[in-house]
Specification:
The chain has helices at about 15-35, 190-205, 235-240, 245, and strands spanning about 40-50, 60-65, 70-80, 85-100, 100-110, 120-125, 130, 135-140, 145-155, 155-160, 165-170, 175, 185, 210, 215-220, 230, 260-265, 270-275, 280, 290-295, 305-310, 315, 320, 325, 330-335, 340-350, 350-355. The protein starts with 15 loop residues before the first helix and ends with a strand. The strands form 5 sheets. Strands 1, 2, 3, 4, 5, 6, 7, 8, 9, 10, 11, 12 and 13 form a 13-stranded mixed beta sheet that branches. A 6-stranded antiparallel beta sheet has the order 19-18-17-16-20-21, with no helix packed on it. By secondary structure, the protein is mainly beta. The chain has 2 domains: about 40-205, Jelly Rolls; about 210-355, no CATH class. Helix content is about 10%, strand content about 45%. A hairpin with a 5-residue loop joins strand 8 and strand 9. Mean pLDDT is about 85; it is low at about 1-15 and about 20-35.
Length: about 350
């Protein structure tokens, strides 16, 4: 629990005139120190940024401590003296609270903490404090006042307004509705947040991949009973199919970078699962297997499936790399376009982080 504490007054008895003089000196010193407060955060990148008071914010500018900044448009990249990098996207209202702390009451913020001095970085939100434990995470405060936080790598300590706290690991999202004092589990942040993250992902983490949430349905062969794999392809699906296949309308509504595949042990080749047939494909060096899906019953008579995600498990399966650092991807068997559909799959998730090179 974060508790604000004030300075304790010195003990003793003062004459009235002496007390006033001391108070005056303290007030003057406070104002001087306030004006000369060190700049804990420096602007390292600006993109069409405009503040309400037209405060000039150029590269190299040091932001004042405990001064509200209202960013009406554009984005800022800040570097704290502790090495923490922060990206803020308008419209946003924020202020620097200390050498390793920021307060945000509106807008989108992404923090990348990669130095020992930066560990413990604090983001104060309307829902409570977000305390870094060495990680990459995002915070979003919506116009309604709702607060959301998602961890992409590492973990954070999340505090609520009732004094409670919990550790939130990579791939998890929490939300605090305006007026509430508690954080609740959520699926993801807004689409606008991920659009901002997409722009900055290579700067934040070169191995980060954003998942298109507009098409997250995947075909599966209904009567196939062997082991399947969820594959991420950097190359879009249609670019890897032959011209005859790409003309078929069935491929228009499915995910382009996530496929269901299996390996034919007899022919010793990989096959992409279509709606009713398997299509041979040549593995690419950028392909990545994310999960294994197999029937729950040994006789293969059940549609129930066991799913094993390759999180933090790095290997190669028949020539294709497998494993990833972190992700929020989940496989939903027997779903297609948000409806029950035996044999097909739906995917939820917003990102994955590949194994570092």
């Amino acid at each position: 629990e974060l508790v604000a504490t004030g300075r304790q007054p010195a003990r003793g008895t003062y004459f009235l005139s002496g007390g006033l003089a001391v108070a005056l000196v303290i007030a003057i010193c406070f104002l001087v120190l306030k004006q000369d407060a060190p700049g804990y955060a420096t602007v390292t990148h600006v993109a069409q940024a405009e503040t309400r008071d037209q405060i000039p914010l150029g590269i190299g500018s040091q932001l004042k401590t405990e001064v509200p900044y209202i960013l009406e448009q554009g984005e800022l990249e800040l570097l704290f003296v502790t090495g923490t990098k922060v990206f803020i996207t308008a419209p946003a209202t924020f202020e620097i609270s200390g050498e390793n702390e920021i307060h945000i009451s509106a807008g989108k913020l992404i923090a990348r903490v990669s130095t020992p001095a930066g560990k413990g970085f604090i983001v104060q939100t309307p829902g409570g404090a977000v305390v870094d434990l060495g990680t990459l995470f995002g915070v979003e405060i919506e116009p309604s006042g709702d607060a959301g936080v998602q961890v992409f790598q590492g973990e954070i300590e999340l505090h609520d307004l009732q004094g409670g706290k919990a550790v939130l690991p990579a791939g998890k999202t929490m939300r605090c509705v305006a007026g509430s004092k508690k954080w609740e589990a959520a699926e993801k942040l807004s689409r606008q947040f991920y659009a901002a993250l997409q722009v900055k992902r290579q700067t934040l983490l070169p191995g980060m991949v954003m998942i298109d949430d507009s098409r997250q349905s995947i075909f599966g062969i209904d009567d196939y009973r062997g082991i399947r794999y969820l594959l991420y392809s950097k190359i879009p699906l249609k670019a890897r199919l032959d011209a005859r296949e790409t003309r078929l309308p069935e491929w228009d509504g499915v995910a382009q970078h996530l496929w269901m595949v299996h390996f034919d042990e007899t022919a010793q080749r990989w096959l992409l699962q279509g709606n009713e047939r398997a299509i041979p494909f040549e593995p690419d060096s950028t392909d990545l297997l994310l999960a294994r899906i197999e029937e729950a019953d040994a006789d293969g008579s059940s549609n129930r499936k066991n799913i094993t995600y390759f999180s933090q498990t790095f290997d190669a399966i028949h020539g294709i790399a497998s494993g990833y650092q972190a992700s929020d991807i989940k496989v939903l068997p027997d779903w297609f376009e948000k409806n029950a559909n035996s044999g097909d799959y739906a995917i939820t998730g917003s990102y994955l982080i590949r194994k570092p090179e």
